[in-house]
Design brief:
The chain is built from 9 helices and 10 strands. With 210 residues, the protein is an alpha/beta fold. The chain has a single domain, classed as Spore Coat Polysaccharide Biosynthesis Protein SpsA, Chain A, CATH 3.90.550.
Length: 210
């Protein structure tokens, strides 16, 4: 039995990005808020566990070690701040050869079946795989390989912290179009982010009743 087989779901590690200071929640960690009686971070972890049991948490908070039992916490090794730095840390933090299945911790309705599709696309030879959302590619619900690191490093070095521009320049990346994404649910719901208290109220209303 190989090391990957012993860990289960060979070749994939989920990386939950718990970035940002959550100023719009008064400094409280937004992924620890409840949606439908379940913390958002647990909802994200449950979706990832449909693909792999292996999860790391990308977070700089001193309290992060207690946020998700069983998940190793990795803090940014680079001094820069920005969403692209979190993705860089995520790709670096997974075991060598693994696909990094990156998901933001504020997406309460992410689909495990969609995550599996993204992982499969990368394992079939792409350097990265992104689903299309209503406003474009979703880099915080995506699969990456180590082949993406040089491009991410160059973006950080030139001070470009926009993941949208990094995604546009990645070689051999594939996109999952909106029509295919809709097989897994309404894209507006799948990629909904809880960034404010108003978003949290909307998310509560999006939870199916019954």
């Amino acid at each position: 039995m190989t090391a990957h087989e012993a860990r289960g779901a060979p070749g994939v590690t989920g990386a939950i990005i718990a970035g940002g200071a959550s100023e719009r929640f008064g400094g409280a960690p937004k992924g620890l808020n409840m949606v439908g009686g379940v913390r958002i971070i647990d909802r994200v972890a449950s979706a990832i566990r449909l693909v792999t049991p292996n999860i790391v948490l990308i977070a700089n908070s001193r309290d992060a070690d207690g946020w998700l039992p069983g998940a190793l916490v990795h803090r940014d090794s680079r001094p820069e701040r920005g969403s692209v730095v979190g993705v860089h840390t995520a790709i670096e933090s997974v075991p060598a050869g693994d696909v990094a299945l990156v998901v933001a911790w504020d997406m309460p309705f992410v689909s495990g079946r969609l995550l599996q599709l993204l992982a499969n696309r990368v394992r079939n030879g792409a350097s990265a795989a992104f689903p299309e959302g209503p406003t474009g590619p979703e880099p915080f619900c995506a699969a990456y390989t180590a082949a993406c690191l040089p491009d991410v490093d160059r973006a950080i070095a030139r001070g470009d912290f926009r993941m949208s521009s990094v995604v546009a320049g990645l070689p051999n990346a594939v996109r999952v179009g909106l029509d295919e994404v809709r097989r897994f649910g309404d894209p507006t719901r799948l990629f909904f982010n809880v960034n404010t208290t108003a978003d949290l109220e909307i998310a509560q209303r999006m939870v199916p009743s019954g």
